[in-house]
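So, does this match?
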Amino acid sequence: MRQGDGRALPRVRSSSKRGANMIAFRSISIKYRLIGFGVFVLTTVLFIGSYSVIKLKQLSLNGIRMNASSEEVVNGLKSTRDIGELRRFTSEFLSTGSKGAYKKVILASKSLEDRIPQAQKPNLKAFLKDMELLSVRMESFWNNKRLVHEAEAQIVEGIKTVLKECRGDSVCIYTLQNALNGFKAYQSISSGLLEGAEEFDSNAVTKIVDAVTADLSKTRQNVQGPLAHALSQLENSFFDLDDAISTIVAIEKKVKSKREDVLKKLGLLDQAIMKSSISAGELASRLAKEGEQISSKAFVITVVIGCTSFTLLLAFGYLFYNSIITPLQKISAILEVMARGDLRNRIDIEGNDEFTEFSRNFNVFLNNISTLVGHVKGASDSVGREAKELSQMSDRMVYEANGAVEASQEAHNQIQEVAEYVHHTSTMVDNLAQATNEIANNTASTASLSESLEGQIQGTRNIIEKLSEHAKDIGDVIELIGSIAEQTNLLALNATIEAARAGEAGKGFSVVANEVKELAKQTADATDKISPIIVAIQKGVEESVASINESVSAVNVLKDSANTVASAVEQQTATYSEINEQVQIINERVQSVEEKVELLAKAAEENLAESRILKDRATVLKENSEELNVQISGLIV
């Protein structure tokens, strides 16, 4: 590829054989490369995933079985724990017979019922039934034990009461001594029963009770009163004690038989639960070994497939990576050179993928940028020249605007002088009128008054002539201001043309130039309005001069003929009135001219300000153009 001047453009080339080897691969579109890579990855993932799913399903089934087996093991362990607690609570109940221990046995049995095999549930129910019957008997057993203790307490109280009522009776004391000895003998042999001893001779207790009650009955028959009643109460207490002891012995025999049944059934439950737990543990161990074998085999196969797939993916990924990175490196090298301002490099066109299309379009873009930079350089130079000319033109406009301001100030000053002369003329005319009245009133002094009147008329004539000269000067100033307005209008038109040639950069100057043009137009309009007023003032001055000349003639006539004084005075009075009216008109027109001149001065000052703004913007445009030239000069095309 070459530039327009025929020079060959430098290129960024791939420096290795790798770039040449990648051309064939890059002939495939990136989109299709991505699709192929995605299909390959997806196929690999699906294959590995399918195999993994199959093995996971096998592991899942094995896990389900292991879970069930584990649950059985856990259930067996919990059952073992529960059977242990049941055994402990049962032993506690058999030892104490307390209701709290019995409730614990019931709760432990219910907890165990949900875990034991179905075949063992009848044994558990039989166990609970025996426990219920045993609970009733144990309750009766402990109630009778309580009755024994109560009877023993009553016997002790009865012995004390009888001893109190004996009152020294030897027979009574002897009987009471026998009763006390019998009670002591009972206590010596009944302690084993109350402490839960397995061997106990209830007949010995009965013999003691019979002997004591017989002796008490015999003594009671020989006494009366409170002593008889006390002996009777003591006798009944011994009978109650004998009944309670007999009941306890009978219950103890039944409880002992039922206790053996309960412990036997509890042992059978314990054996069944232990056997079930051992079976579940063996099954869980076997399933764990099978799961481990499946997992090991799946791991080995998955690793082999994964390594193979990873190798293929790595090779394909390496090709894909190079097909992307190599073009990007070339583009990056081009951009790096462009960042240094060199726009001459181009990218080699290789392959037929998206990067190839991008390289082609990027080269076209660089060509367009190079052309554009050349055009911008030319336009920048042109804008610089136009900005320089516009700056010079704005300097001339400022100079002309300053002249217009000075001219308008001079015109204002001259108009002030004219106004003063007009005022002075008005005063002189008033004096002439007074003198004329004096002439009319005193004709005797006509000659002297005529001379005085002639002098005053001559002074008025001189003032009117000066007024005429100033009116001509004002006309000259108005012509000068009109000429300046025309030149300003031409300069504004030239500035507008130059701003249009400057394009976008000259828009601000175009606005200022239009404003200057508008001010010049307003100045010309004001000049056109002032010119007729000045002409009218000049005409009034000429009429005033003519009137004054007539006054001079009249005065001369007055000198020649005193007889015509009256008519001359009347004519002169009329003339003075007309002169006064003309002077008033001149005064009004001078004031109007003064106002117009003030407006013209204000417009000239605004024109000067706008001209200075135009000059400043022209300076800024020139500086921007120079800065743009500096920036563009760093680009190589």
Observations:
- Residues 385-633 form a domain with the Helix Hairpins fold (CATH 1.10.287).
- The longest strand covers residues 11-12.
- The mean pLDDT is 71.
- Residues 226-339 form the longest helix (114 residues).
